Amino acid sequence: MPTPDRQPLVSVLIPAFKPRHFRQALDSVRAQTHEHLEILVGDDSREGDIRRLVDEANDPRITYIPSHQVTNGSAKLNHLLLWHRAQGRYVRFMYDDDLIAPRSTTVLLELLQSVAGCALSWHQRELIDEHGATTARYGVLTEERRAVMDRPLLLDNMAKFLNFVGEPSFTMLDRERVPHFSFSRYDRFDTAFLWDVAMYLATAEHGLVHGSGEFLGSFRVHQGQVSTRANVFGAVEWELVFRQELCAGRATLAQCHEVLPKLLGLYQASKHTLPELHGFQGRLLADAQAGRLIESTPAFLAHYQRLLDEHR
């Protein structure tokens, strides 16, 4: 293994605002076998707990950034601030309640470097609860397998499995291949829930995606996380993605019909939380059955924008 001074610099960006699991998340980053790290902690909490935990870590690789002074609590701005502060060519995000195994960064970097034209790498992760107990462990790849995808193949697999890549904590980007980073932006829309999917599709426009079946991370599922509160938008934004991809000629009707049962299931699971989703579910089914997914997309977009204006 190369000594740290001969390793490529990897910037680890931690947009933080919840202190409860932050120490564990930070310790898992500091324990990486790839030691040449720049760890940027953007504190959006306006409290002193995260700053205190950073100080206690006493690691010269960590830079504390009081991002709340300029972001006004915006998670998107916190991501962008850290991205533009990063010095490494290779960048990974890490959320304040997730965990990564010691080999995570080493594997992600090797995935990026081993395939010419690769812009994004990822590995599989398990799900854990607020206490750290494993609740699920599944993936689309066997643990010994790797897969290289271009954007059409990435989208095709999303039609089969939705977000099989997982969360940004378990990915890495090559910044030289991502000239204009706009986290959460899909097409002309700022997503409320599918931030990660928007990032993956945008990145895949500039290079290949390389994934590993190894389980080298843990995504924590609990009531306090942002994704839990924004989950009601998940079904609508998946519909947005496949309608827009279809209208742009990048998705086929067959792919849209393959993903249709999954979208209807997401609506079914969420509509008790937001009654308006019942209307989205009914319109999607009617449009698909009538073969009018393209023609009805302008009306869908109007409903989507109204939903964002009322509930975001």
Primary descriptors:
312 residues, 12 strands, Spore Coat Polysaccharide Biosynthesis Protein SpsA, Chain A
Describe the structure in your own words.
The chain folds into two domains: 4-224, Spore Coat Polysaccharide Biosynthesis Protein SpsA, Chain A (Alpha-Beta Complex), CATH 3.90.550.10; 230-311, no CATH class. The strands form two sheets. Strands 1, 2, 3, 4, 5, 6, 7, 8, 9 and 12 form a ten-stranded mixed beta sheet that branches. The protein is α/β, with parallel strands linked by helices and 312 residues long. Helices cover 42% and strands 20% of the residues. α9 (234-247) packs antiparallel against α10, α9 (234-247) runs antiparallel to α12 (297-311) and α10 runs antiparallel to α11. The protein has helices at residues 22-30, 49-57, 68-71, 75-85, 104-114, 151-161, 195-203, 226-230, 234-247, 253-270, 276-290, 297-311, and strands at residues 10-16, 37-43, 62-65, 90-93, 99-100, 118-128, 134-136, 146-149, 171-174, 185-186, 189-190, 208-220. The relative contact order is 0.12.
Which percent bin holds the helix content?
A: 40-55%
Shape annotation: globular
**What is the level-2 CATH architecture name of the largest domain?**
Alpha-Beta Complex
Total E-strand runs: 12
Radius of gyration: 20 Å
Q: How many domain regions?
A: 2
CATH-defined superfamily of the largest domain: Spore Coat Polysaccharide Biosynthesis Protein SpsA, Chain A
Strand content: 15-25%
Helix count from the secondary structure assignment: 12
- Roughly how many Å apart are the termini? 47 Å
Provide mean pLDDT, rounded: 93
Q: Note poorly predicted spans.
A: none
Topology as a string of helices (H) and strands (E): EHEHEHHEEHEEEHEEEHEHHHHH
Give me the CATH fold name of the largest domain.
Spore Coat Polysaccharide Biosynthesis Protein SpsA, Chain A
The CATH class label of the largest domain is Alpha Beta
